[in-house]
Write a structure and sequence with these properties.
Aminopeptidase; 4 helices; five-stranded antiparallel β-sheet; alpha+beta
Length: 177
Amino acid sequence: MVYLETERLLLRDWLPSDAESWVAMNADPLVRRYFPTVRTREESMVDFSRIQDAITERGYGWFAAEVRDTGAFIGFIGLSVPGFSASFTPCVEIGWRLAAFAWGFGFATEGARACLSAGFSRWGFPSIFSFTSIHNKPSERVMQRIGMSPAGTFMHPNVPEGHWLREHVLYRSVPLN
């Protein structure tokens, strides 16, 4: 099922044919640069199932991102519920992770804009958050480009204390009414 369409992207359910690209993405140190570790095949496949189950359960989630013209799976863009406790949770989060070959074309911004809009208009969320390591300037720029506002920083509870990636920026968006 396709949940959202943009000029260049389909944001859809995950297909079995996405699995190998997903595994490769998560094993790529470049893609996982702002995460504490790369993912093993087994970890990626657990995530693959968990992500699709969340979409089935909620009607939204980390949608598989496909380039309309080529049919290429490039990663995910979507909305989720973080599975950790922090001052701003429970909440809905917008996020993205794209294969390195898809960087620099504006796909994350294009898909995130569609997800942010649908989060408010289709699913009626009162606010949407996004976060990343303070070092991940490319993702932070996407947050800024889609109109989110800085909401501080926090220490991510799932990143080990003392790890260089533990401190995260936090952004927030509310519906424009």
